[in-house]
Write a structure and sequence with these properties.
Elements lengths: L1 E10 L2 E11 L4 E5 L6 H8 L7 E6 L2 E2 L4 H5 L2 E4 L11 H11 L4 H15 L14 H13 L5 E5 L7 H14 L4 E5 L3 H7 L2 E6 L2 E6 L1 H7 L5 E7 L2 H9 L4 E8 L4 E8 L6 H11 L3 E7 L3 H9 L29
Parallel strand pairs: 3-8, 3-9, 6-7, 7-8
Antiparallel strand pairs: 1-2, 1-4, 4-5, 9-10, 11-13, 11-14, 12-13
Helix pairs in contact: 3-4, 4-5, 9-10
């Protein structure tokens, strides 16, 4: 649906986005992640045609955003981090203005305004001044304007920033609903939000695309060998003896716990799931197994690993880990 080719943005000697390339496929909710200054908002502004690129191009359904802006932009709905609202208008007046600016006919305007009001849940506040609405309703009005014209792609830059927990849940649910009919690109600093909502994640840092995959594959790729933690009612020698009968173990560390228990950390051999074997070994030894849990990497762990030591835009060194799938190359750096 969207193809970004070698996109670059420079401000004097500063390179904000460097030779960034990736593809957005139809029907997918994408999470666009990166630390402050990574280039997320700059990239979104160039994709939507709000900001000109220094080099490279963006194709939206085959139409160049720079050479065929009208054809390309009509396929994109955009909610910037600061919603472009006219606060002295009501939502009805504002949406009518946006619909007219998007070139919708009078009958289309009335029909689509009704539809987006229902989708975003703002009908009950349609006649209030926008400046008197809560932050959550203002965000909903911003999303409603992005939906006008029924664009194939909706790009949302930090749509839940500044919202309270209840409003965040409401906007998340709305994004999931919109994902049934639209391709979504969601920028957010809330990693749990991205993991809960998105089908695929792109992580950028200092001008480089450092990962692109599903949340599950990213955590699996960067998890390393998981550690199995045990709490056993018994002694250290008995615990070690029980574990000696379990295969596929790389390393074991045992130490005293509390109340006559032992704590054990087990490193299995790569890709080995030894939980059932461990359970049976302790049952046969007559040692009560009070706890067994596995430590795995979270999306936050992956994000920190990929972004803390990422190369600078002018550095052409490859990322430390190879991507599994998704955009083949990419780089960037962001507005705050």
């Amino acid at each position: 649906m969207i193809e970004v080719r070698h996109l670059t943005k420079r401000y004097g000697s500063h390179t904000a986005v460097s030779d960034l390339s990736f593809t957005i496929e139809n029907g997918v909710i994408y999470g666009f992640l990166g630390p402050n200054g990574a280039g997320k908002s700059t990239t979104m502004n160039m994709i939507t045609g709000c900001l000109g690129a220094t080099d490279g191009e963006v194709l939206v359904d085959g139409h160049s955003i720079s050479e065929e802006p009208m054809l390309a932009k009509k396929r994109i709905g955009y909610l910037p981090e600061q919603p472009p609202l006219y606060t002295d208008m009501t939502p009805t007046e504002y949406l009518r203005f946006v619909a007219s600016a998007k070139g919708l006919s009078r009958p289309e305007q009335a029909s689509q305004i009704d539809q987006v009001m229902d989708k975003t849940g703002i009908r009950e506040v349609r006649n209030r001044l926008i400046k008197n609405l809560s932050k959550g309703y203002k965000q909903r009005v911003g999303i409603a304007q992005a939906l006008l014209g029924n664009p194939e792609v909706i790009i949302l830059d930090e749509p839940t920033v500044g919202l309270d927990p209840a409003q965040i849940i409401e906007i998340r649910d709305l994004i999931r609903e919109l994902g049934a009919d639209h391709t979504i690109v969601l920028s957010s600093h809330i990693l749990s939000e991205v993991q809960a909502v998105c089908d695929s994640i792109m992580i950028i840092s200092k001008g480089k695309l450092v990962a692109s995959d599903t949340p599950e594959n990213l955590t699996r790729l960067f998890a390393g060998v998981p550690t199995l933690h045990l709490e056993v009612k018994g002694g250290e020698a008995e615990t070690r003896a029980a574990l000696n009968g379990v295969g596929q173990i790389e390393d074991v560390a045992v130490k005293p716990g509390e109340d006559m228990t032992v704590l054990a950390e087990i490193k299995p051999k790569e890709n080995a799931d030894i939980r059932e074997a461990v359970f049976k070994a302790f049952a046969e030894a007559g040692l009560p197994l009070l706890e067994m849990r596995t430590d795995r990497a979270s999306l936050e762990d992956v994000f920190l690993e990929l972004t803390q030591d990422a190369p600078a835009p002018q550095n052409e060194a490859k990322p430390r880990r190879k991507q599994r799938k998704g955009p083949s190359t990419g780089e960037e750096a962001d507005k705050a």
